[in-house]
Amino acid sequence: MARIIAVTGKGGTGKTATSALLIRQLAKGNKVILAVDADPDTNLPETLGCDVSKTIGDIKEFMHSERDNLPPDTNKESVLKSKLYEIIEEMPKYDLLVMGRPEGAGCYCYVNNLLRGIMDKLVDNYDVLIIDAEAGLEHFSRRIFRRVDDLIVVTDGSRRGLRTAERIRELVDEMETDVSNIYVIANKVTETNREIIASTAKELGLELIGMIPVDEMLIRKDLAGEPLFDLPDDSAAVMEVERITAKLGL
User: Name one GO cellular component term (predicted).
Assistant: First the structure.
């Protein structure tokens, strides 16, 4: 059974960069990886250095508009499945699937229902899924992914940021989503705020699994729009993510 890891957090906390570094670390091993960009902003492909032309949003749009035009005996799940496999980008060390968002108006519940069953089967082809999720947990509320083994909330070093992590934990409980573990990663940590972050997380009852330091190499690559896959192994952020994956048992 695949290990499903979802990464969420407010915009600007480094959620997508953290997802990319987790994928980079796991790609060094022998695991079969599916990277899923579930954020409508769709920044993960650029962070990984990939070009994506089609998304699940495009497929939803097609199925939504054509469902009544298909022959009555058409197996719509097979049509959706074939189109889904067409848009999976096969990279040398991982596969990439971009969720996107349909542009048209109307309810996509019908397509979502089909998609749930297909995603359940697709997951079985991989050892690990890394999902770059949006902060609102929309994809979880729609149950596109029926379970998540590890939900990682990326936050900055502020108390407000850690409060956001606490609120996300509350949302997961309210939604009764099948999430086994919730962890917090503090990002852009400095020596001056490291201790207060650890104590605040403990006070709020948050399981702090790692603190990624401010990394000038990462900042330069991010500003230049260069893939984080190219960061060297001695990057401070890369080394901390390596420790985090070890704590996760990966």
Answer: cytosol
